[in-house]
Design a protein that fits this description.
heterodimer; A: alpha/beta; Rossmann fold; L-amino peptidase D-ALA esterase/amidase; 8-stranded mixed β-sheet; 6-stranded mixed β-sheet; about 30% helix; about 25% strand; B: mainly alpha; ABC transporter involved in vitamin B12 uptake, BtuC; 13 helices; globular; disordered C terminus; translocase (chain A); ATP-binding (chain A); nucleotide-binding (chain A); AdoCbi_amidolase (chain A); transport (chain A)
Chain lengths: ~500, ~325
């Protein structure tokens, strides 16, 4: 649909802003143009729309050079959505959208046809603004006004649509609405779209392909997965960024990393003494948020948290929605919900084993509570009723962990736990074999993300070694404490 | 649709009423029946055909031309305060006309006056827009008006100089400068009618483009408008209208501001109708203003420009206030 080859040019021919840019856009696809301020995005778009002449190179639309079209014929091929601006005089929505039919009008007198009327009605319908047809544009909100202009561009019935930062000044709901509609026109009606984006993440979400401009030249072109590369984006934008994936669709997203971290955070170390233990719960209150990954009851998954809670509940605890119950419990006990991650256990929280491992100045703190009443041999895969049993394990690392290290740390911890079961001869009551854990164990690994960097957490690393030994020892000790308490309890009953 | 029909009906009715008042009211009352029965009252018929009617027709043509030119300038420059007078275009036309008289130029026969007048209008319009663009690329409303005022006063001093040097025909030129449509006769009408027709037609051809240009030149370009060509047509058409109006009546201020503004409020900004409706309403307004000018302190006649400025200046202030308030709210 659009073919650009060796395009060079700008406002000043002697000093071109855009330099030998070449790319192609297939019909029905969406191309996003990215680049830092002053990289030539808008200039390139202006050259594509014929507003600025090319010093050299060609732009072909539908197989013809854009210079060969008359103004009206070109407007029947290419529609442009401008950036929002305030206008002195105002038209009604209907008048505004009708102007999109200008390139289809000819002759001295009005030649408004049924086709014109249908195109206008359909464009207003698609943008959901038919009910505003007689409203003056100036009385509409930014989002509604932008929709009217999209409808105007759609009424032009041009197969190629050029957009210049279409979501500027729009809130996220209107951004989504606008881009959803444009995307739908591309997918369903074969509209070809080329859009300049300020926001890398929006471009990644909606475009089939991206073009990254750097000082007027093509730095990268390809699918969002190819173009949005941590190194490339950092280089071109001169910004510290981290690439991640969108949680629901397979498109990369970029997150900005702020500059200097505060030095106080650097010096703060989590120690055994930061834990408070009572009959009701174990609580770690960290002064700064820790990056955590867990299988907790409340706020499982990954996130940044300050409060870590392991709450004691009666063995007879029943709830249809444990998450919601935990939430209200946390609220009642004054924990800030957004900063808290919480587990529960029927084991006695006073019996929690908390120890430090690894280097003294930045230790790894392990905390385990265990109740092995419903121990399970995972390898047996036996059918059993649902009974809660819990070994809750926390590993707090004073260091900087990669995602990889966090996952490896969890693997190491699980292996060490299974070994502790074996050493303590914890049996699965159903199969009579040695258990590997209990039915509803939870694991949490959290890191300060300051200090030493730990790229890996496997058993050969210092981190892995500390986690392995720590979890093994603490779990074994927690099991012993559980058994002791049980003995005392049973002894009391016999008396 | 109904709204549009109503607009044209209303404008025609007002125009017809204005014409009727214009021809019948005065020191001598002219009964309407002399129109089809001139024998009934020879004097009245004579006054009607040779004095009142040409005066009314001329007032109508001048008022309509100025209003239509104002509407077009406002649309093109996206500036609600633009009109031939505030842009200095009328002064340019005046200088052109006075220069013709002053130097006794007779290059194009009886068309010399309107042609020089139009040339002056066009030249000043280009200077004003060119200068404003050099000052401020975005062509802000205030910049253009201020430039218009600067050029207007400069041209005003040129006029004063020429008048001072003329001596003899002083009264005539000053009377003409203040703006008047009296005692011009049919000759003047035939002199400017072809130009007014051409200028009006040029603007009418650009009615759809003017609608597109309300969104800015870039947007108009994207909608398929040949912006350069159309801009010249609109500037040319507007200058021709202004120049020919000034050539026969001198500077009559604010008609091009007040009329399009009222018409926009009542019937919207669609230039397909705004241009012709402004012409009709401008004609009505100037006919009525002229009626007031010659009857209010009868037997002395006021220049009609006094009346239009009396109405126009407050309206200008009002529009300016409203626009600035609107801008303030928008940027808040």
């Amino acid at each position: 649909m659009l073919k650009v080859s060796g395009l060079t040019g700008g406002y000043d021919i002697g000093n071109p802003v855009v330099r030998s840019v070449s790319f192609e856009v297939e019909a029905g696809t969406m191309l996003g143009i990215l680049g830092p301020n002053g990289s030539g995005k808008s200039t390139l778009l202006k050259m594509l729309s014929g507003l600025l002449p090319a010093a050299s190179g060609t732009v072909e639309v539908g197989g013809r050079n854009i210079g060969d079209y008359s103004r009206k014929a070109f407007a029947r091929q290419v529609a442009v959505l401008p950036q929002l601006q305030a206008d002195t005089f105002s038209h009604t929505v209907y008048e505004t959208v009708s102007l999109g039919r200008y390139p289809h009008q000819s002759g001295l007198f009005s030649s408004w046809t049924g086709a014109d009327e249908r195109a206008v009605e359909s464009a207003m319908d698609r943008m959901g603004i038919s009910k505003y047809r007689n409203t003056q544009i100036e009385f509409m909100s930014g989002g509604e006004r932008q929709r009217a202009f999209v409808a105007q561009a759609l009424a032009q019935e041009a197969p190629l649509l050029l957009l210049d930062e279409p979501t500027n000044h729009l809130d996220i709901a209107h951004q989504q609405q606008l881009l959803d509609t444009v995307r739908q026109q591309a997918t369903e009606n074969g509209l070809t779209v080329v859009s300049v984006f300020h926001d890398i993440n929006l471009a990644s979400l909606y475009c089939d392909r991206l073009l990254l401009l750097d000082e007027g030249e093509v730095a990268a072109i390809g699918t969002p997965g190819e173009v949005i590369d941590e190194r490339k984006i950092s280089d071109v934008y001169k910004a510290r960024v981290k690439k991640g994936m969108h949680p629901e669709i397979p498109k990369p997203q970029i997150t900005l990393l702020p500059g200097e971290e505060p030095s106080v955070r650097e010096k703060s170390v989590i120690r055994k003494g930061d834990f408070s233990v009572s009959g009701k719960y174990v609580h770690l209150d960290s002064r700064y948020p820790l990056k955590a990954v867990s299988s907790a009851v409340f706020q499982a998954g990954s996130g940044w948290f300050r409060h870590f809670i392991n709450r004691h509940v009666d063995a007879g605890y029943r709830s249809d929605d444990a998450g919601a119950e935990m939430r209200s419990w946390l609220q009642r006990n004054g924990f800030p919900l957004s900063q808290s991650v919480a587990m529960m256990t029927a084991a006695m929280t006073e019996d929690a084993v908390i120890r430090e491992y690894g280097p003294k100045e930045a230790p790894i703190v392990v905390c385990v509570t265990a109740g092995v009443g419903n121990a399970v041999d995972a390898s047996a895969g036996a059918d059993r009723g649902v009974h809660a049993g819990t070994i809750n394990t926390w590993i707090i690392v004073n260091g900087h962990l990669t995602e990889e290290a966090l996952i490896q740390g969890m693997v190491t911890a699980t292996e060490a736990k299974a070994k502790a079961m074996q050493t303590e001869q914890v049996l699965d009551p159903l199969t009579g074999t040695i258990a590997t854990g209990t039915s509803t164990d939870s694991l949490l690994i959290a890191a300060t993300q300051t200090g030493d960097r730990h790229p890996y957490g496997g058993t050969v690393t210092t981190l892995g070694k500390a986690i392995g030994r720590g979890v093994f020892e603490c779990t074994a000790e927690a099991v012993r404490r559980y058994r002791d308490r049980k003995k005392v309890f049973e002894g009391e009953e016999e008396e | 649709m109904r709204n549009r029909l109503l607009a044209y009906t209303l404008a025609s009715a007002v125009l017809l009423a204005a014409i009727w008042f214009g021809v019948s009211i005065g020191t001598v009352n002219v009964p309407l029946r002399v129109l089809w029965d001139p024998g009934a009252n020879e004097t009245a018929a004579n006054i009607l055909w040779n004095i009142r009617l040409p005066r009314v027709v001329l007032a109508g043509l001048v008022g309509g031309s100025l209003a239509m030119a104002g509407a077009a300038f406002q649309g093109l420059l996206k500036n609600p305060l633009a009109d031939p007078y505030t842009l200095g275009v009328s002064s340019g036309a005046s200088v052109g006309a006075v220069a013709t008289l002053f130097f006794g130029i007779g290059l194009f026969g009886s068309y010399t006056l309107p042609i020089f007048s139009m040339a002056g209008a066009m030249a000043v319009l280009l200077l004003v827009i060119g200068f404003s663009r050099a000052v401020d690329r975005s062509l802000k409303m205030e910049t253009i008006i201020l430039t218009g005022v600067i050029f207007g006063s400069f041209l005003g001093s040129l006029l004063s100089l020429m008048i001072a040097l003329t001596g003899e025909e002083l009264r005539q030129i000053i009377g003409w400068l203040l703006g008047s449509v009296s005692m011009r006769g049919w000759k003047y009408i035939w002199m400017v009618l072809p130009f007014m027709f051409i200028g009006g037609f040029m603007l009418w051809l650009c009615r759809r483009e003017l609608n597109a240009m309300l969104f800015g030149e870039e947007r108009a370009h994207h909608l398929g408008v040949d912006v350069r060509k159309r801009k010249w047509m609109i500037l040319g058409g507007g200058s021709i209208l202004t120049g020919s109006a000034v050539a026969v009546s001198g500077t009559i201020g604010f008609v091009g501001l007040v009329v399009p503004h009222m018409t926009r409020i009542l019937f919207g900004n669609d230039h397909r109708h705004l241009l012709s409706l402004s012409f009709m309403n401008g004609a009505s307004l100037l006919i009525l203003c002229d009626l007031v000018a010659r009857t209010i302190i009868s037997p002395t006649e006021l220049p009609v420009g006094v009346i239009t400025s009396f109405i126009g200046a407050p309206v200008f202030a009002f529009i300016f206030y409203r626009q600035r308030r609107k801008g303030a709210v928008r940027h808040a």
